[in-house]
Each structure stands twice: as structure tokens, then as C-alpha cells.
Design brief:
By secondary structure, the chain is mostly beta strands. Helices cover 12% and strands 34% of the residues.
């Protein structure tokens, strides 16, 4: 799964790495992004890719209110095409959720060690995401825009930490993932399985990241060998 992640790049850096045509938001570096907070995503509108801010935790367009968003931060890629909460977004509203790494916890309950996971070369990457706009069926003046991160079975490098991992798309999968013309479930599942990074680098970091209030660059500093978090 993915319950916390990190993003700290400037707009200029993001444009270098991702297919962004319109960028009207100003990123705020965050080293401990938690559910319901705003995150950066690439969303397609009218054949152009927009850099936008979305709330992390998907609220379906048919929901009564936004309260369930915090429970829908992840969607299992194996069942996403059939689940009522995700199937419409999977067909029509896919996005790239931008990140520099994410946290996962290793070990037994009460003794869990936070681990920071990244691509081996440290480049920023994109989670495969879905997005929605909720306005209480037109009753709200401003839509609540939200998203979720797709997950898959963990790779060899992640399995010692957790049995699930987020879907991290390779650049060659970006276009077909964002394309509203691509509604074929087999094609989309092929992107998830065959156009995604699976081998990641992980390092132990301070247990202070357990608190979402601790949001600073030092969160990413690897623990020295033998040190306790």
C-alpha cells in the first residue's frame, strides 16, 4: 500500500520529467504527505495535461459527503475495474500523482521501522492514480477534487517490507494512462503490469516520520548502521 509519501520538486523540475502542458499551481515541498492533504497530479483536460492539486483520498462523484475520502487513499489494481467506488474513474479519470519517494513500515506491530523507498537513481516518479470531482450533485459551488493511488503485489525488492506496493509508471506508460480514449481494461492492466517500475531502493529513516506533523527534509536522512529510529 502507500500511506505516506514525499514530493519536493519545483515546477521547472516537474516539467522536465513529466508531460505537463499547463502549470498554474505552485508546489509546496512536503516530506511527509498524509491522507486528505493536497498533492500534485497531472490531469488531462481537452487534450492538454494540467498540473493540479488534488486531495489525497478519493471521494466518488455519487458520495453523500467527503468524509470517506481518508479511507480511499489506495485502490487495488486487480479489482479497480469492477469496484463501484473506482470503476468510473478507472475508465474516464486517470492521472499521474507526482512523488519523490514514499514511506512504508517494516516489522511487527509495536516495533515497526519506517523505510523510505525511491527509484534507485533518485529521480521523481509518478504513481498511477484516479481522480474525481465531487460537488454533491451540483449543490456545492466548488467541487472537491480528490484522487487515489493504485497498488499492486509487491516486487522482490519491496516484499521484505510489505506485500503491496504502489504502481509507479514508467514514462512510456504516461500517454496511454492519461488518454481518455483508452478505456480498454486489458490495455490499462497491461500498463500496470508491464509499464511500471518494480525494483526500488529502501533505507531506514527516523521513527519521527510516524507523526505527519514532522515534515522536514531531515525525514529522508538514512539512519546510521546500528542507530535506533
Amino acid at each position: 500500500m502507500c500511506g505516506r509519501f514525499v514530493g519536493f520538486r519545483s515546477v521547472e523540475e516537474l516539467i522536465e520529467h513529466f508531460p505537463i502542458h499547463v502549470a498554474n499551481v505552485e508546489p509546496t515541498p512536503s516530506y511527509n504527505i498524509a491522507p486528505t492533504q493536497e498533492i500534485l497530479a497531472v490531469v488531462r483536460h481537452d487534450a492538454q495535461n494540467h498540473l493540479e492539486k488534488l486531495h489525497w483520498g478519493l471521494v466518488p462523484f455519487w458520495a453523500k459527503d467527503t468524509s470517506n475520502g481518508s479511507r480511499m487513499i489506495n485502490a487495488r489494481s486487480e479489482t479497480v475495474a469492477a469496484k463501484p467506488s473506482f470503476r468510473t474513474a478507472f475508465k474516464w479519470r486517470r492521472c499521474l500523482i507526482l512523488a519523490d519517494g514514499f514511506y512504508e513500515w517494516k516489522g511487527e506491530k509495536g516495533h515497526k521501522q519506517p523505510m523510505f523507498l525511491t527509484l534507485p537513481d533518485g529521480r521523481p516518479f509518478a504513481f498511477a492514480g484516479l481522480w474525481e470531482a465531487w460537488d454533491n450533485r451540483g449543490k456545492e459551488p466548488t467541487a472537491y477534487r480528490s484522487c487515489t493511488i493504485l497498488t499492486r503485489e509487491a516486487s522482490v525488492s519491496v516484499m521484505p517490507i510489505h506485500n503491496r506496493m504502489p504502481v509507479i509508471l514508467k514514462p512510456e506508460g504516461f500517454e496511454m494512462w492519461l488518454s481518455r480514449g483508452n478505456q480498454d481494461v486489458r490495455s490499462l492492466q497491461d500498463i500496470i503490469q508491464n509499464k511500471a517500475y518494480t525494483e526500488l531502493k529502501s533505507v531506514p529513516v527516523s521513527k519521527q516520520v510516524n507523526s505527519a506533523k514532522v515534515n522536514r527534509p531531515g525525514n529522508l536522512r538514512p539512519l546510521e548502521p546500528g542507530a535506533k529510529g
